[in-house]
Amino acid sequence: MDHPERGGVTVLEPADPAAVPAPRAEPEPASRWARALAGVGYRERRRTSLAEQLVPPMPDGPGVTPALVEPSPLLVRLGVRLPAPLWSWLCRWAGWLGPLAVALFAGVLRFVNLGSPHALIFDETYYAKDAYALWHLGYESNWSSEANGLITAPNPTVPLNSTSAAFVVHPPVGKWIIGLGERFFGMDPFGWRFMVAVLGTLSVLMLARIARRMFRSTLLGCVAGLLLSVDGLHFVLSRTSILDLVVMFWFLAAFGLLLVDRDKSRALIAERLARGESADWWHLGWRPYRLASAVCLGLMTGTKWSGAPAVLALVLLAGFWDSSGRRLAGGGRNLRGLWDFAWAGVSVALTAAVTYLLTWTGWILSSPAPGKGGYLRDWAALNPSDTWGWVPDWARSLWHYHHEIWHFNVNLHDPHTYQSNPWSWLLLGRPVSFFYESPKNGQAGCTTTECAREVLAIGTPFLWWAGIVALLYCLYRWLMRRDWRAGAILCALAAGYLPWFNYQARTIFLFYAVCFVPFLVLAVTMMIGAMLGRADASPDRRLAGATGAGLLVVAVMWNFLYFYPIYTGQTIPMDDWRARMWLDTWI
């Protein structure tokens, strides 16, 4: 299915050694520098046609997979014989069927018992209620101190306060999304977690398709989706009504759309070259996927300001990808290469900024009368200005509100039990307990003297610790092999991770890292692809690589199952809970 002759990844069946192609002879490096690079593993890329360099073929699909595919030797050996038309159809649509199956698996995990714990856990106490107020008032309002108890009572009531606007420090997109689930299913735990679980499931599907497109392998695409579906941090955040999973979703969507734009634009370049046109173009016409990516970046920033660095990262990626495509087509380094970056910056950043502004529509349309609309909506009316009086009152009030939000966010230094430093995130040094109870015998299903019930926001340790090695591998691939895929993964991960190092004195938490978890998974997937080896490697090499890669995936899945009780708030004996606290800092 993966067309190894086109660079895909597949697991070869044992074959006659005479039928296995011999490894290609590598030419002796000519220069001293080339020999030095060869000494640390660098090899020249396989020579391919210009069209294939611009757009490598996909592993399967209509127009790629033959109309009639030979039966699988493995299935034949197992005694499974599918009708030829059905088998050919499955092979042709494997690029969708595989990712959809993985997404279905992820969805079942996330939606089973989604309403448990029946409580407002951790920051749900803010976002679930803010979302409800947004859908009913157009802006967030203050709530009474008894609100949580009333909402989660056996006979719940929702004490919405429509006269007192609340100061909130995050834009409204994520809360609008959370509130959509409340509109469908009511103001209860399942309702306020529903849409986040939907986005968590869809992100698994997106990552599988993104990995397939990046690595040109349906197998690796499904591996990436599977690994994300069993990451503990992604799993817990997919079942909790807070904003960070929403930030991750829009970031991943923006990255995927930009990746599609890269393939579409390069296919257009290949068509132009086939017609004999030069590489001296100023633009490639309408770029709907790039604009859609920019809209997603605006929605990401409109969920949390921590999404803003992603705009710069994807602008740089778009510029580099256009410039490298131009050079590959023979355009060289000239003024048009600089134009690629300038146009990427204008088109992406401007579209993202307009989208961000539109996310505040509910607040803007609320009443500007004193005490009647959103928080500080009346600021311009209460503070007239001769200098800036020509600016619409909503714009002046919104600017002042943003100033207050910025001041709060950069000066948030209140100590918290579960805060952590970003240096420790990849090591999972200090996870966050979203929910904890210690039921006694006979309570909440406890059958021993003492039990524990916890929802712990922590990544699957084996996946994250393997991710550290994978990031080093990607760094090598980027520096020594000029692999654009490794560069893209590192760029996106850096945008979600490195900015937090500038706020080490601020109160920050490990679960902010969910923003870059998909790119950590992509790094691990790329490393697994290297473990599998080249399609023309010897059977022994392929068998060893497949065994190592399979053991890694199985270990990650076992690790997720082992921690599953403390991801979902299940009641377990206290000794079993202590056995899962591998580090003292996890308590």
TrEMBL record:
Biased composition (Low complexity): 13-27
Main location: membrane
Pathway: Protein modification; protein glycosylation
EC annotation from Swiss-Prot or TrEMBL: 2.4.1.-
Transmembrane segments: 190-211, 218-236, 242-260, 306-325, 337-358, 462-479, 486-503, 509-531, 543-564
Membrane topology designation: Multi-pass membrane protein
Cellular location(s): Cell membrane; Endomembrane system
Region annotation Disordered: where it falls in the sequence: 1-27
InterPro entries in the cross-refs: ArnT-like_N, PMT-like, PMT_4TMC
Keywords: Cell membrane, Glycosyltransferase, Membrane, Transferase, Transmembrane, Transmembrane helix
Domain Protein O-mannosyl-transferase C-terminal four TM: 396-586
Residue span, ArnT-like N-terminal domain: 102-318
A Pfam family recorded for this sequence: PMT_4TMC
PANTHER family xref list: DOLICHYL-PHOSPHATE-MANNOSE--PROTEIN MANNOSYLTRANSFERASE, PROTEIN O-MANNOSYL-TRANSFERASE 2
Similarity-based family: Belongs to the glycosyltransferase 39 family.
Primary role: Protein O-mannosyltransferase that catalyzes the transfer of a single mannose residue from a polyprenol phospho-mannosyl lipidic donor to the hydroxyl group of selected serine and threonine residues in acceptor proteins.
Record protein name field: Polyprenol-phosphate-mannose--protein mannosyltransferase
Organism listed in the record: Kitasatospora saccharophila
